Amino acid sequence: MQPTAELEPVEPFLESSFYIDADAPAIQRFARDHAGTGDDLSRAVWLYYAVRDGIRYNPYAVGVEPASFRASAVLAAGEGWCVPKAVLLAAVCRASGIPARLGFADVRNHLSTERLRESMETEIFYFHGYTTIFLEGRWVKATPAFNRALCDKFGLRPLEFNGREDSIYHEFDQAGNRHMEYLNDRGEYPDLPFDDIMAVFREHYPRMMAQLNAAPALAAGDWQADVEREIAR
């Protein structure tokens, strides 16, 4: 799947797709319940916070089956990592009549756990996902990955979103420690480039992918418990 061009018409980014299944009843209901009744900007902001804090961030919940990345599946699970949460935000925006698409970048992420570092064998998160939303005539980036409770535990500044400025990861945490470095922009897409993501993961995360294909060992880990151990170090 190829990235989209910046000047493409926005209408295709309102359509439901296999991954961004904006027409799913649960997605439609979530959008109605959380978007409010204001203009597009106001509703997009409400939806951002509903996804950011209502769906827990869990990088252990990595799936290898396409169905696990569908927005409706993420909503049903109540948790996910950056890519599924970005898919969900795009879906609820489209369900509300707000154009949205998916963006990806490679980042060096210093928020991790010992289990995750051992499994990934790197601090680089390839194909980190975010959502871009078309508001007031321009595309604005929104990153709903880290829920507020997790940020509070790790001493991070939660990513806020006002609909007018890009919401991307902070370079440093509240204590001034290195948090996130953007390394490579992979472009923006009308739907999830699942095959591309899996190919890159197999190349860069062979141990993690072997675990997931064998017995979802990583997903079986307790993210919250590992977070508590990490911050106690």
From TrEMBL:
Which Pfam families has this protein been placed in? Transglut_core
Cited SUPFAM superfamilies: Cysteine proteinases
Matching InterPro entries, A to Z? Papain-like_cys_pep_sf, Transglutaminase-like
Which domain of life, per UniProt? Bacteria
| Residue stretches making up the Transglutaminase-like domain | 74-146
Query: Can you name this protein?
Result: Transglutaminase family protein
Annotated organism of origin: Seongchinamella sediminis
Give the source lineage, highest ranks first.
Answer: Bacteria, Pseudomonadati, Pseudomonadota, Gammaproteobacteria, Cellvibrionales
